[in-house]
Amino acid sequence: MDRTLRTGVTGVMLGMITAPLDGMMLGPALPSIVRDLGGLEYFSWVATAYLICMAASTPIWGKLGDLYGRKAVYMASILVFLLGSGLSGVAQDMVQLVGFRMVQGLGAGGLMTGALALIGELVPPRHSGRLMGLFGIMMPIAFIAGPLLGGLFADAGWRWAFFVNLPIGAVALLLIGAAVRLERRRIRARIDYLGALLLTVVLVALSLVASWGGTRYAWASAPVLGLTLIGVAALAALLLVERRVAEPIVPLRLFADRNFTLAQVIRFLGGVGMVVAATFLPQYMQLVHGASPVVSGLLILPAMLGMVAVLIGTGRLISRTGRYRIYPILGGATVAAGMLALLLLRPGTNLALASALTLIGGLGVGLLMQSTTIITVNSAAPRDMGAASGSVTLWHTMGASLGMAALGALYTARLQDTLVERLGAEAATRIALTPEALARLTPAAREAVHLAVSNGIHAMALGAAALGALAFALAWFIREVPLRDGAPSAEPATAAA
Which of 105, 180, 269, 298 is deepest in the core (most CB within 10 A)? Predict the structure, then answer.
């Protein structure tokens, strides 16, 4: 790789890392945000609004890149993200912050999509394993550095959790503009606005069902059932529209390739595995062992380091041998084993052992992420590289969102059942699950909470293990199609009249 290409890739990576880093910084800073802005009833929407807009805009950015050039579109997505970051940093109330986070999410949808598509166009799949491994490192780095920076910004001023994106994004724009060289092209075609609208409705409905079902409303309640029907109807309409338009937002022809379809489903399941490492394990560390938010983030370091090692190692092996089918098979089995290993987490489990157990799941998720990315890129024609990369990000995002809801329901239900069994229904409802509140409980009540959290982790782990086993079973149907070894040429694109 020459110096110019290295400089361009560095800029692409800096642009990509801003979104996950922002998400991980926000968690420790949220209590300070609510303290300053109020609006506790909008607390969850600070994250939900961002996630919905990110998921909905992901395939749109990918298609825009296919039509109008991936470099310019990627730089535009960075600008939108930076605009949302700056506005979020100056928000004066919670409603404003939620609205500005929506702008931020719209830009974030193009960051991962544009980055993967740019690499797919600059480097052929046969030689992209190492670069894909470097891309995969960005997510674990964000998970490690994010909580630390978020904790620091919570003390120094939460607005810096948004402002810090501005210099990083500015450097990324300068490097990409100066060093990335691609053939200019513009395809004359109409944007599939109806498809984009229907896709947004589907994603919003599914996200609200995942967010509200079993928490704000019962699963069989009218709002949840109504949203489910709206989502199903919008999905059916989307499939009809995408079959007829000249330039669909989600090209259904991609799913005619078996490897592509399997890679997306497995990527969805890998997104669920990321939720376990990033969300539920820190709760166990905080509520059972009394670790601070920053320290609990560090205690899942083995999972992140395992993910990094696998991403780099498999990237090199795939580049060297051209063979990849074995890695999603191993990934599914390792994720299932890693989730089952979490059944060893109990109130008295040594903290060092609890931290080490996270390594297995991290290895499995890394195997799934790396292999499905390369399979996706290899299964798509150069014309559809942006849409294919957008599909990877979309399925991963939805896996994380829906996995959070489904596994969160298992976790919460088992936790509440244990508290009721040990303390009674009335006492269980009065317990606040924060480290500060637990310190004020009686020893018996504190022991009950520790057991309840451990049981909740066990229920979640069993559900995640089942999904890992499903990924393992599906991976056996992947075919070992030779990786393209030529430059990803600018395949001539034709647009329907």
Answer: 269
Same domain, 6 and 111: yes
In a domain, residue 453? The reply is yes
- First-last CA distance in the chain: 40
Last residue of a domain, one of 244, 260, 283: 244
Residue (of 314, 406, 396, 306) closest to 358 by Cα position:
306
| Token pair 């079973």: residue | 473
- Residue 123 belongs to domain with CATH number: 1.20.1250.20
Q: How sure is the predictor about 396, in pLDDT bands with cuts at 50, 70 and 90?
A: confident
The answer on 125 and 1 residing in a single domain is yes
Per the CB < 8 A criterion, the answer to whether 421 and 413 are in contact is no
Domain membership of residue 430 (yes or no) is yes
The torsion angle over the Cα atoms of residues 38, 39, 40 and 42, rounded to 10 degrees, is -140
Nearest to 346, CA basis, from 424, 453, 491: 453
- According to DSSP H, which parts of 276-350 are helical? 281-289, 293-299, 301-321, 326-341
Together in a domain, 166 and 75: yes
- Shared domain for 285 and 237, answered yes or no, is no
Q: Which of the four pLDDT bands, split at 50, 70 and 90, describes residue 326?
A: very high
Alpha carbon distance 393, 448 (integer Å): 40
Where do we find the tokens 């022809």? 253
496 in a structural domain: no
Question: Would you state the structure tokens that stand for residue 491, as one six-digit string?
Answer: 């395949």
- Structural domain that includes position 85: 1-185
Angle, in degrees to the nearest 10, between helices 129-156 and 351-379: 130
Instruction: Let me know if residue 497 belongs to a domain.
Output: no
Closest CA to 367 of 397, 390, 394, 333: 333
Q: Rounded to whole angstroms, what are the CA distances from 119 to 70, 160, 312, 398?
A: 10, 31, 16, 23
Mean per-residue pLDDT over the chain, rounded = 79
Neighbours of 330 (CB within 10 A): 18
Q: Tokens standing for 312?
A: 């780099």
Number of folded domains in the chain?
Answer: 3
Tens of pLDDT, residues 83-100? 999 999 898 888 899 899
